[in-house]
């Protein structure tokens, strides 16, 4: 009984976590530049939705802790089917169950950290323009 429960319960949890997407929240902050279900961009930081525990966890990243942000094509990067989590222990991808049908992903390189963070956006061009205006966009490494 214990063995069956220890196998069945994690499978149920994984299925439930992958069935839901982060929800777009109603935000009325004056310093909000952009928001969708995956990311909220403010004057001084960005908030990634779906960072921890499926679509519910959130992570705030101050812009002064970012070295650069890349817009990478998923075919070349190899993370097209990464719904959430890591596969190489250097990159963490936020929750996006529709990532296999997308072409691009943003990769954040933080200062003093080996971990990279991959995330999606609903309007890649607008988000890239905001990051470019702040001097955060860098060229993709070959």
Q: Which blocks of ≥5 consecutive residues have pLDDT under 50?
A: none
Major sheet: 4 strands, antiparallel
For the biggest β-sheet, the strand order reads 1-2-3-4
Question: How far apart lie the N and C ends?
Answer: 51 Å
Structural class: alpha+beta
Q: Report the order of strands and helices.
A: HEEEEEHEEEH
Q: Could you explain the architecture of this structure?
A:
The chain contains three helices and eight strands. Strand 7 and strand 8 form a beta hairpin. The strands form two sheets. A four-stranded antiparallel beta sheet has the order 1-2-3-4, with helices on one face. It has 142 residues and is α+β, with helices and mostly antiparallel strands. The longest helix is centred in the N-terminal third of the chain and has 17 residues. The model has no long low-confidence stretch (mean pLDDT 83). The chain has one domain.
Strand and helix layout:
Elements lengths: L1 H17 L13 E4 L3 E4 L2 E5 L8 E5 L3 E8 H4 L13 E3 L10 E7 L5 E4 L4 H10 L9
Parallel strand pairs: 6-8
Antiparallel strand pairs: 1-2, 2-3, 3-4, 5-7, 7-8
List keywords for this structure.
8 strands; 142 residues; four-stranded mixed sheet; four-stranded antiparallel sheet; alpha+beta; single chain; 3 helices
In short:
By secondary structure, this protein is α+β, with helices and mostly antiparallel strands. The protein is 22% helix and 28% strand.
């Amino acid at each position: 009984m214990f063995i069956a429960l220890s196998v069945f319960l994690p499978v149920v949890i994984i299925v439930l976590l992958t069935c839901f997407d982060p929800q777009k929240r109603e935000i009325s902050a004056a310093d909000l530049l952009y928001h969708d279900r995956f990311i909220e961009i403010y004057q001084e930081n960005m908030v990634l939705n779906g960072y921890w525990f499926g679509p519910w966890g959130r992570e705030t990243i101050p812009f002064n802790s970012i070295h650069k942000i890349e817009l990478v094509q998923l075919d070349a990067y190899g993370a097209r089917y990464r719904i959430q989590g890591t596969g190489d222990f250097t990159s963490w991808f936020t929750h996006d169950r529709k990532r296999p049908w997308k072409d691009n992903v943003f990769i954040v390189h933080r200062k003093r950290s080996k971990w990279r963070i991959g995330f999606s956006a609903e309007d890649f061009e607008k988000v890239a323009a905001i990051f470019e205006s702040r001097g955060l966009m860098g060229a993709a490494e070959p």
